[in-house]
Write a structure and sequence with these properties.
This protein has 161 residues and is mainly alpha-helical. It is built from 5 helices and 3 strands; from the N terminus they run αααβαββα.
Length: 161
């Protein structure tokens, strides 16, 4: 079954997107969408990178909740800072040394940083050892690095193999 349907979630998403784009449930469109949903993942299977393996799904849920909470708090903090005096802001680029080596983990970490208001990941060194992070207000670069490593990178390293 795995050879015929290498990515079932991708196939389902392709079918749904096809039907939404065509805005119809006509039998011909359903059939064509199903055909594309089966064939495209088969043709592109070798192009997809190695799949991530979750070791601790419960920790992944806790990390997700932490990230959502941090996003809410950061929204309020960014609003407070940008409504205040501009001179009080201390924007800065900071190189974050990475302990995580898994490409999925690096991508997720960069995404978490970018999703959190006030920070954005902007570059990754070729050797994948440093991530460049821009933050809207940085008092202590070492504290920013320590917070990211403790709150996000550490749990990601435990979650992914």
């Amino acid at each position: 079954m795995r050879r015929l349907l290498p990515a079932p979630l991708l196939s389902a998403a392709l079918l749904v997107v096809w039907l939404l784009l065509n805005n119809t449930l006509a039998p011909g469109q359903i059939l064509l969408g199903a055909l594309l949903a089966l064939v495209l993942p088969l043709l592109t299977d070798r192009l997809r990178p190695e799949r991530a393996h979750l070791r601790r799904p419960a920790l992944a849920v806790r990390l997700l909740l932490r990230v959502l909470w941090d996003i809410v708090l950061a929204n309020f903090e960014v609003a407070r800072r940008i409504l205040g005096p501009e001179a009080a802001l201390r924007p800065r680029f900071v190189w974050l040394p990475l302990d995580i080596r898994d490409p999925w983990g690096i991508a997720v970490l960069a995404g978490i940083i970018t999703l959190t208001p006030g920070t954005v990941s902007s570059d990754l060194t070729a050797d994948r050892r440093y991530l460049l992070v821009h933050a809207l207000d940085v008092d202590d670069p070492a504290a920013l690095v320590a917070a990211i490593k403790q709150r996000y990178e550490g749990p990601l390293m435990e979650i992914l193999t």
